[in-house]
Amino acid sequence: QVQLVESGGGLAQPGGSLRLSCAASGFTFSSCALNWARQAPGKGLEWVSGIYSDISTYYADSVKGRFTISRDNAKNTLYLQMNSLKPEDTALYYCLKGVDGYSVFGGYDYWGQGTQVTVSS
User: Which DSSP category does 83 fall into?
Assistant: First the structure.
């Protein structure tokens, strides 16, 4: 069974940093695109970033230049390094598995339970 387990969330001050991790199992990790999405209270799910199986990366305009997505295929782990955090980054962050190596802007089939990020002074 496919499992995606997010971790690393917490409380940060504006301008601070956090690194999220998503531990994956149950599929060939290196063959699939992976993504981060977030949901703030009262809002819909917002796609944040994605990474192809060939390591090409993509970002929402709201996080470009501040967040960095990466993957460690040897550890079956996806990461999101979040720098220069803003209060509007506060959300529950999920990792999403793509159905193939290029499913960044659609084509997701599994996701995790989420990890909470709160940015507040």
Answer: -
List, in order, residues 6 or more apart from 64 with CB less than 8 Å away. Answer: none
In this structure, the dihedral spanned by the alpha carbons of residues 61, 67, 73 and 76, taken in order and rounded to 10 degrees, is -100
Question: How crowded is residue 36: how many other Cβ atoms within 10 Å of its Cβ?
Answer: 26
- Separation CA 53–CA 34 (nearest Å): 8
Q: How far is CA 75 from CA 35, 71, 93, 102, in A?
A: 16, 9, 20, 20
**Residue whose tokens read 């997010």:** 6
Q: Which residues on neighbouring strands pair with residue 46, listed in sequence order?
A: 38
Walk along the chain (121 residues) and give the pLDDT tens digit of each residue: 999 999 999 999 999 999 999 999 999 999 999 999 999 999 999 999 999 999 899 999 999 999 999 999 999 999 999 999 999 999 999 999 999 999 889 999 999 999 999 999 9
